[in-house]
Design goal:
The chain contains ten helices and 23 strands. It has 485 residues and is α+β, with helices and mostly antiparallel strands. The protein is globular and about 70 Å long.
Length: 485
């Protein structure tokens, strides 16, 4: 081969990963995932006890944003669900891949973590309806396929807003250690300790907060510049206290995530029904909306009022940043992923003997539910005995222009998200939690040492103590992969 021709071919090939693969395209969708009449009565997640609904007047949704070029298309689907198991997410991805031809690995499916949605994976005493799980997987796939069908030439941009008013660390140091459900007086930190009444029982929060609101926006690249959709991210747990019917019955609800989507859509594209705003949950495993530093608020909220108030506040901050976005059509899309095997904190013989002892008393069962927290965790102990020694954990990393998006399948502590943002070499980074599966809480080793609810061994917290360190190391590699492409 001619030497000059060889060099030219080599340089051309070497440049392919960074070369433009055609114009950017984007599409978005909202799909209803409210249970069908045949699904009722249906279990709802978010409580340590099993609860059921016979119906609902409020609808719940999943929302999808897809973007990319002729070479790579990716999508982000946020589901009004507390937790989504890996098997359900993988099933939805397989169906969506068959419908679109896009590799299943290019999809992110995440739960918002609303506590007022049908149970999708076993959690404490709540168990899912298999028929609803199958229905939900199909509806998620439908949403991805609908976003694909709506792809159009687009341009994209990102910005970062900030809202410090709505985020508070819910874990506080206590002045005297207290008992965990396993009878050990070792916990130095307590979740939701109550408002500070000056009694000296708590001292200070056990971690930081992340007030950032990174957001990705896409619009048509045609002359009309029609807005298509946006994906925002905020590190705040659910707000709760959803609307009720006139006779006081509980309702399904997408919580403040759903309210944000509707408020933001009306501000960006008033009167338009095809615009899709999405709010994903950031690293909020130890964050909620309650300021325990002061006395209890005097205002009494009506059901649904608080979640709308929070949504409007976050939307105000997001919209201020959104208004400053500069859009580009050259918006390269790159994806990288890692599959980790992480250890499970399984109970030993002593733990199992104590669990059997606690559950041997018939008084532990009240109206079909285990009530004392010790009994609930004894049941969790027996169930974790059946877990494998290790579990697979899926991590994703996206480069979208100069914006980076990372995903974790855990309720991730905020300081982990902050560290990942510090490690990222990109202009902005968002971390979406509870994505592509559910592997419980993800505290740091230090937070494990301090104890508290989020560390108590259960289906909600079972990964090895060093899991966060191994995830961060893997994300470092993924960030390096993205930076080199």
């Amino acid at each position: 081969m001619n030497r000059l021709l060889f060099i030219a071919l080599f340089l051309a090939f070497r440049g392919l990963p960074d070369a433009s693969a055609g114009p950017l395209r984007a599409g978005a969708d909202v799909t209803d995932i409210t249970p069908l009449p045949s699904h009722y009565p249906i279990s709802t997640a978010g409580s340590m006890s099993a609860t059921f609904l016979d119906g609902t007047e409020e609808r719940i949704q999943c929302r999808t944003l897809m973007l990319g070029d002729e070479k790579t298309l990716v999508s982000f689907t946020l589901v009004d669900s507390c937790l989504i198991p890996r098997e359900l997410a993988d099933s939805a991805k397989r169906i969506a891949s068959e419908k679109t031809g896009i590799p299943a690995d290019n999809f992110t499916i995440a739960a918002t973590h609303t506590h007022t949605a049908p149970t999708a994976t076993p959690a404490f005493q709540s168990n899912p309806s298999v028929s609803y799980q199958i229905y939900l997987a199909g509806r998620i796939a439908d949403s991805i396929a609908a976003a694909f069908a709506r792809l159009e030439p687009a341009e994209a941009g990102w910005a970062v807003g900030e809202n410090r008013e709505q985020v508070f660390n819910r874990r506080w140091f206590v002045t005297e250690p207290y008992s965990n459900p396993f009878g050990e007086m070792t916990d130095e930190v307590r979740m939701n300790p109550g408002y500070n009444q000056g009694d000296g029982k708590v001292s200070k929060p056990a971690g930081p907060v992340d007030p950032a609101i990174p957001l990705l926006a896409v619009r048509s690249s045609q002359d009309d510049k029609k807005p298509i959709g946006l994906l925002a991210n905020y590190a705040l747990h659910y707000v709760g206290s959803p609307p009720r019917t006139a006779d006081g019955k509980a309702q399904l609800s997408g919580d403040y995530f759903d309210r944000f989507a509707k408020v933001m859509a009306e501000r960006v594209a008033p009167g338009r029904k095809d615009y899709v705003a999405i709010l994903s949950n950031g690293t909020s495993g130890d964050i909620n909306n309650v300021n325990f530093a002061g006395p209890a608020p005097e205002k009494k909220y009506e059901p649904g009022e608080k979640m709308l108030e929070v949504a409007k506040s976050v939307a105000d901050s997001a919209y201020a940043a959104f208004a400053k976005i500069e859009y580009r059509t050259d918006f390269p899309v790159v994806i990288a992923a890692r599959e980790l095997e992480l250890g499970v904190r399984k109970p030993d013989a002593t733990d199992l003997a104590l669990a059997h002892q606690i559950l041997s008393s018939p008084e532990q069962l009240i109206n079909g539910n285990l009530k004392p927290v010790e009994a609930i965790y004894a049941r969790e102990t027996l169930q974790l005995r059946e877990y494998p020694d290790t579990v697979p954990v899926r991590l994703q990393a996206y480069r979208l222009g100069d914006l980076c998006i990372l995903t974790t399948p855990c309720e991730t502590f905020v300081e982990i998200g902050l560290e990942l943002k510090q490690l990222s070499p990109f202009g902005a980074t968002m971390v979406i939690e509870l994505a592509n599966g559910y592997n419980g809480y993800l505290p740091t080793p230090q937070q494990h040492g301090w104890g508290g609810y989020e560390t108590w061994r259960a289906k909600s917290s079972y990964l090895e103590v060093d899991a966060s360190l191994k995830m961060i190391a893997a994300f470092k590699e993924l960030l390096g992969d993205l930076a080199g492409k």
